[in-house]
Design goal:
Blueprint (H helix, E strand, L loop, with lengths): L2 E5 L2 E4 L4 E8 L6 E8 L6 E6 L6 E3 L7 E6 L4 E6 L8 E11 L11 E4 L3 E6 L1
Parallel strand pairs: 2-11
Antiparallel strand pairs: 1-3, 3-8, 4-5, 4-9, 5-6, 7-8, 9-10, 9-11
Length: 127
């Protein structure tokens, strides 16, 4: 069974930073791309960032470019999301997810491309 556990969420003032972590167990972590998504109340889940299985390539949603950085440590089975210059509109539950494709070079933005999900961590940015 594949289990993903996010941590690092919390309350931060606008302009502040947070670093989210996601630890994965149950499937060879280093073989799969990882993604971060978020969902605000009343809104659909949206793509935030993704990273290939070897960390060689990353992708970001336009509104996150330059502010968010995704990285991974395959030795620790962990993917990170560093979030800087946070805005109130970044308030959401953030989820990490694991792509179903083995060692794909394609970074996907659609939720249905990911077959395992964490429980989410709340990020709240106050103005």
């Amino acid at each position: 069974q594949v289990v993903l556990v996010e941590s690092g969420g919390g309350l931060v003032q606008a302009g502040g930073s947070l670093r989210l972590s996601c630890v994965v167990s149950g499937r060879t972590f280093s073989n799969y791309a990882m993604g971060w998504f978020r969902q605000a109340p009343g809104k659909e889940r949206e793509f935030v960032a993704a990273i290939t299985w070897n960390g060689g390539s990353t992708s970001y949603a336009d509104s996150m470019k330059g502010r968010f950085t995704v990285s991974r440590d395959n030795a620790k089975n962990t993917v990170y999301l560093q979030m800087n210059s946070l805005k109130p509109e970044d308030t959401a539950v953030y989820y990490c997810a694991q792509d179903w494709a083995l060692r794909t070079a394609t970074l996907r933005t659609a939720p249905h491309a990911y077959d395992y999900w964490g429980q989410g961590t709340q990020v709240t940015v106050s103005s």
